[in-house]
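Session log. Operator J.P. requested a structure for one protein chain; no other inputs attached. Running the standard single-chain path with token output.
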Amino acid sequence: IQYQSRQSAVNARELLQGRNIYDGCCQLDIQYSNLEELKVHYNNERTRDFTNPSLPSEPKGQSSQSGYVDAGGLYPLPPAGAPAGTFHFGDVMQLLLMGDTRMLLSFSFLLLFIWLF
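Structure written below.
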């Protein structure tokens, strides 16, 4: 998530750092990004730039894949039939908080999965 200001990012980190996603498990570990700006290329279920609704939903000629690629590599989707709210990526989740002059939000599948359940 990229915030409009550095102070907004600091406030969000202070509010969320160390909290559990579920009662007693899945503790949040929120860290600042070393990127200057978050770049969102597509508006879909994996990423979204709310300041630019005209972005395409996927590259031309490509369809959805079984995972998504990010700077860290390929992350698989949860298994079919997994119980709602299951956390498949370990006990600690890392969010990148960045302060900048523009308001951009990028929700990875991981964040959406957690927020939806």
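Operator note: The radius of gyration is 15 Å.
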